Amino acid sequence: MTTSPVSRFEELPDEELAPSTSLATDSTAASMAGGPSERPSAFTTDETSDDDDEGEDSWWTPSELRDLLEHAQELKQRGNAEFGQGRWEFALETYREGLRELPVRRRTASVKGKEKALPSQVGTDGEDGASYAKAGEVDEEAELEELSELRAILSANIAACLLKLERWKEAVSACDDALEDKADYAKAIHRRALANEAIGSWGSLSASLEDFNKLSTLSGNSSLLDKQIKLAQARLPKKIEVQQAKEKDEVVGKLKDLGNMVLGKFGLSTDNFKLQEQPGGGYDISFER
């Protein structure tokens, strides 16, 4: 069983969620007035591709990263307060502003140039310089992990707002973003499962069941969430079967309409052709007037 990581940040709880109910509010969030500002971020955001991050002016120092984390955390707390007040649109924009503050973590390398600067700061190329660089790398990695975690929480909170606003497909996308930054993030998996079930297509229902099955393998779930998982695992297979048959009939109906449009020019219709399944497999097509 996979262990679900413990967050260092305050999160919106959703253990009370059921498919027919709304997301729970964050009763512990500090109340803060006013909506989010529109100030754009000067740092790399998730709207910018990793290929655009090669410019020297896009990198940040450890102190800059710490400032960004603190500011994003303040915006998250404001969003939590707005969410708790039922101001979904305000909370959505506040969480998005917080996310824009945070640079996208580079997964292929650590912060560029930091290791190069550390030895010169201690003025030696000997063991002291190497030890200082090693310690700096550990601190840097911890900050980058914190960055990824806060990005994941903000994306999951964006999904919570979108669920409240019944914008199901956007909620799925936000959960995907959260899971890019924090794999096996239970809240994101749960909210994506709820959004996909609300979408209701054959593919979405199947994806929802996959997520509920995934949740069942994670440790640390509450008894209430475990109950929701079991209920979902019981109800979704039948919903998937019904929806699959419905979508199959819709496709067959559209093909039949197309066939009738073509055959109608010759005074025929698809009703003139009968399909009969053969014992050994396949179908026999017969023509009737």
UniProtKB/TrEMBL annotation:
Segments of this protein annotated with the region Disordered: 1-60
Transmembrane segments: none
Comp. bias regions, Acidic residues: 47-57
Biased segments, Low complexity type: 18-33
Name of the protein in its database record: TPR-like protein
Source organism per UniProt: Rhodotorula diobovata
